[in-house]
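ARCHIVE CARD
Drawer: 12
Card no.: 0347
Subject: one protein chain, sequence and derived structure
Cross-reference: see card 0346
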Amino acid sequence: MPRKITVALRLTMLLATAAHAQDRDVQADIELIQRADIARTVASETAELRIDEFIDFACSHCAAFHLQRADSLKSLVAAENLTFSVRVFPIPRLMRGFQAAEAAFCAAAYTGPPGFQGMMQQLFENQATWVGELDPTPIFEMYARNIKAPMDEYRDCVARDAMAPLIINDIRMAKDGGVRGTPTFVFNKAGEFEGDEQFYSPESMAQFEESIARVRNK
């Protein structure tokens, strides 16, 4: 079993390492990463459980799930008083997932939760448009412009790979949690990440309710 460590501590450790790097305005990038992390998370101070969803924006199963069941998942998170985070686990063979994640997080850092949701919706709705492109950058910029992201700042964030530490942290968590594909949902007590309860590509919302009940009763 992976050793217990809080989700917040994982990111704090990664950012502390980044702060020692010789890079321009590192503190500003750390703040950007923190804003993106907040934007992709629905947090509750009283939540006893958390769900971490690992996706690849280039994954067709991830797109299908979100386009069909995103509203049901949002309702469940609210009804069960959960903390929910969307994390990325780019699959190398899908090629463009890492770039899409950078675009989504860079936009989210400047536009908050609505911007992240807007980017995610556009990326999944139009997946077939960009997933095969040699350079999907202009398409991602169009999506960012649609959600009113400040374009100079957005382009700078993408060009410097400012969100790479956040993506790397997600990949490490996925590996530690035994995630093998996307979408995978991992259930834990709030603030912890052990990956004891998880499932890949759910077939029904009932699976969520069953996993929530089991983790709550542990």
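Annotation on reverse: The chain has a mean pLDDT of 90. The longest strand covers residues 49-55.
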